Amino acid sequence: MIAALARAASFAMLAVAGRDAGDDAAFVARARQGDPSGFDEIVHRHHKRVYALAYRMLRHPQDAEDVTQEAFLNAYRRLDQLREAESVGAWVCRIASNLCLERLRSPRHRAEVPLPSPDLAPADPAADGETAETVARVRAAVAELPPKYRLAVVAYYLHGHSYDEAARLIGVNPRTFKTHLYRARQRLASLLEDPTRASEEEAP
Amino acid sequence: MKCRRAETILQALLDGALPPNEAARVRDHLAACAPCRARVDSLLLVHEALSTQPEPEPSPDLATAIMARARAERRLARRPPLVPVWLEGWTLGSVGLGLAACGLVISRHLVAAALPEELTAQLAGLLPVALVSAFGLFGLWYYQA
């Protein structure tokens, strides 16, 4: 019974995903023909996802909004170069990922200010103090990861816990993606076990 | 199974990406290895902390701002260039400087001929500045509109 329900749910999700992809392709076609409402729809559908990725990477609301705008405008200028019109959302995410990496690697990147961010708050307010502190520590420690590891963690936990989907979003091959994700979590786990060890640990 | 190999496999187990036979081998290893059991606990905590993060929300006018910028780009792209491409850059700069110099000389003569002497000295300097400013404002208006 449960298996049948799960199968039905996954068919329904696939149907929704297929319909969304079809809509995206239609909006891209409209935008390419010069109809501004086509691009408006693309922005409307995907800007929250792109913003969330940029925010988790840069941990600064204004920087995240700047990157989101820049990513969509880059996409708009290069819309003719997009090969898979149905993947326009993933494409913009990929552009935003690269912009975030560029910013993080730039020597002029502003020092990250630890924000009173909703990201750092524990999800369950009833969690005991120790658990809440651990959760906050893990989330804050993501900012200490090297940018490519941080990107892997952000993409995986933001976009459906799928290696292939997350790898596609940030434009790396799934094998490399898995390595980055595993190493990132290794470092975070080491930090929990022994805060002084995490920075020294080098994964194999 | 060695602990180092187990660590990689533990992560796949965490993600539900491990075939059943591999999962059984990891469980056997865990039953006999206290450090790996501790590692699983830490990895689980990390996984939980990252899985339950609330999704950050952008400001409500972000989408509108992006759409407006895209429309502005579109208008700009459709506008014919103010000057031909071959005139841009250094060519345009040189021609502009030449014109400004001519304008300066001519305007001094015109002003000197048309006005009483006491006003000439003050206005002669202002006229070319006004001409250049008007030209600049027109350029700004053209590209912003």
Describe this structure in words.
The complex is a heterodimer of chains A (204) and B (145). In chain A, 70% of the residues lie in helices and 0% in strands. Chain A has helices at residues 2-32, 36-58, 61-77, 88-105, 129-141, 147-158, 163-170, 174-193. Chain B folds into two domains: 3-51, no CATH class; 83-144, no CATH class. Chain B has six helices and no strands. The interface between A and B is large, with 48 and 35 residues.
Radius of gyration of chain B, CA atoms, in whole angstroms: 37 Å
Write down the overall mean pLDDT of chain A: 80
The run of helices and strands of chain A is HHHHHHHH
What is the CATH level 1 assignment of the largest domain in chain A? Mainly Alpha
Span between termini of chain A: 44 Å
Number of helices of chain A: 8
**How helical, in percent, are the residues of chain A?**
55-70%
Question: Percent of residues of chain A in beta strands?
Answer: under 5%
Which descriptor suits the 3D outline of chain B? rod-shaped
How many H/I helical runs of chain B? 6
Q: What are the defining features of this structure?
A:
heterodimer; A: 204 residues; mainly alpha; 70% helix; elongated; disordered N terminus; B: mainly alpha; 2 domains; rod-shaped
